[in-house]
Description:
20% strand; globular
Amino acid sequence: FTQDGLEIIKNYTVDLLGVNYYQPRRVKARETLPNPNSPFFPEYYFENYEMPGRKMNPYRGWEIYPKGIYDIMINLKDNYSNIESFISENGMGVENESRFIENGKINDTYRIDFVKSHLIWLNKAIVEGANCRGYHMWTFMDNWSWMNAYKNRYGFVSIDLETMERTIKESGRWFKEVSSSNGFTD
């Protein structure tokens, strides 16, 4: 590095940070020696840890840990000059959502519970001074995923792949109410 390079880094910092949060990454000390001939990755120093009793989304194999969104925002506040930020992605994918159709609508209370629990922790961070300016769900409507095509559905709006008809899910109705009233009470 050069002194000029350090000055550039010092003077041109990030103005706004988008944070994608889906699940925590838990680690533990390595139980085995790393391969000294392998390419360097952070995993050289640790192994993944699966916490017993964790809450899981079985369709993605991801841990559901809403407090993680709070931890990230407080870390930004305490250690990164409370940079202005927003949650750019958060959400959960569920396989075969059509099984939750009731009266022609997808009753996705699991998504409502997921988003609500994350918003509760995000609000706590904001109340404690975190400079978070917004929350974006992944995604507004069901979409094609690089990981699993249309197997898992993520959105507030369901898309019938044969007819292209779009139907607002119960989570979409709930989120509209949350947005309109700037919060929820239950």
